[in-house]
Each structure stands twice: as C-alpha cells, then as structure tokens.
Fold this sequence. Notes:
The structure holds 2 protein chains of 2 kinds.
Chain A lengths: L2 E3 L4 E5 L4 E3 L2 E3 L6 E7 L6 E7 L6 E3 L2 E6 L4 E6 L8 E8 L5 E3 L3 E6 L1
Parallel strand pairs in A: 2-12
Antiparallel strand pairs in A: 1-4, 3-9, 5-6, 5-10, 7-8, 8-9, 10-11, 10-12
Chain B lengths: L4 E3 L2 E4 L5 E6 L6 E7 L5 E8 L2 E4 L8 E4 L6 E5 L8 E8 L11 E2 L3 E5 L1
Parallel strand pairs in B: 2-11
Antiparallel strand pairs in B: 1-3, 3-8, 4-5, 4-9, 5-6, 7-8, 9-10, 9-11
Amino acid sequence: AQKVTQAQTEISVVEKEDVTLDCVYETRDTTYYLFWYKQPPSGELVFLIRRNSFDEQNEISGRYSWNFQKSTSSFNFTITASQVVDSAVYFCALKTGANNLFFGTGTRLTVIP
Amino acid sequence: NAGVMQNPRHLVRRRGQEARLRCSPMKGHSHVYWYRQLPEEGLKFMVYLQKENIIDESGMPKERFSAEFPKEGPSILRIQQVVRGDSAAYFCASSPPGGERYSNEQFFGPGTRLTVL
C-alpha cells in the first residue's frame, strides 16, 4: 500500500527564517516518483518538483531545496529566507505503478512579515 | 499552449440537484485524472480515464458519481443528487500519452469548488 505522511499540519515562521517541511512515504515499489506541490490561497496547485526513486541527488532551485533520503523514506523540502509569498499549503505526493498520485494531508505554512 | 481548463470554477447546488464539472486537458494529452479535496484535507484520487475509456475508478464513490471522457469534448465528472458532504474542490489533471510509465507528470487544472447548500 502507498502512503504519504506530512506530520506537520501547520507551521509559522517569521519572514527571512528558513523552514523545512517534512514528508515521509511508504511503498513497496522499487520504482516511484515523488512530488511537491504548492497550493496558495487562490486554490490552484502549483508543481514544484519531481524526483524519481533512482536519483537521490539533492536539488536546489533558488530558495527551494529538496533532500531525498531513501534510507529513511523521506523527501523533505526546505525554503531558505522565507517570504510572505511562500505562505501556502504544501503537498507531498507519491506516484508508483498505479496511475494516480497519493497525496499527503499537506502542511500549511504561514510566513509572518 | 493553454493549460488544463476546468469550468465552472465555482458551482453552487442545492441538495438533490445534479452537478456537472468539466475538464479540458492540455493539448495533446489523452489521459485525464479527477481528484477530490475535502476541506482541510489532501487530494484523493477518484478516477483515471483515457479517451472513451475508464481505466481506473477505484477512488470513485459507488453511487451518484460518474465520469466520462468522450472522443470529442471535455471530460465530465457528474454528481447526481448532491449532498452536503459532496462540497469540495474537484481537481482535474492531464498527462500525455506514452512515455515512461511512472514518470508522466500530471498537470493540474485550477479546480472547481462545489458548494452544496
């Protein structure tokens, strides 16, 4: 069975602080993909990153970075120097041999100016 | 190149009415997925369709819900005799045909927010 756990329901940080959003996944498949999406207050889903199970290299994109650790089944997301515009709900998702994405319950990030 | 389009963006229905949600996939995409997001929850898979075929409907409620993706026109998610518990955001995603089986990224539409009074 597939499962994605985002234990942090809500996080608040002050602007310019760094923040890490945790994601732990479960799957028996050896081939899978992991995703992060951002859902701002307007409600749409914004794709942030896709990572396949064979590529454990960490990735950095501007203020965003992702840490994929197969040994702990984690795919954590760090925002450096947070900004008010980063306030949103962030979803981690898993895609295996099934056709659909399995989403975590999301982490609501509030960046306080 | 337009993204995935969904309409209406907001839909209000009274209990017992029917709701029809439309999704036009990205150009060239032949795979459509519907997800439901209940308030304060993550997205849950409902159904996966290809043109004229339902491939996986394991997430669809057994009654009142149906989906189609005809040869011509948008995909439709239909909810009959809506109840208050159907109030949610319904997202459609599309992906292109072929490609590496596991990697096909799903491109999401803006969602339809259904409110049942």
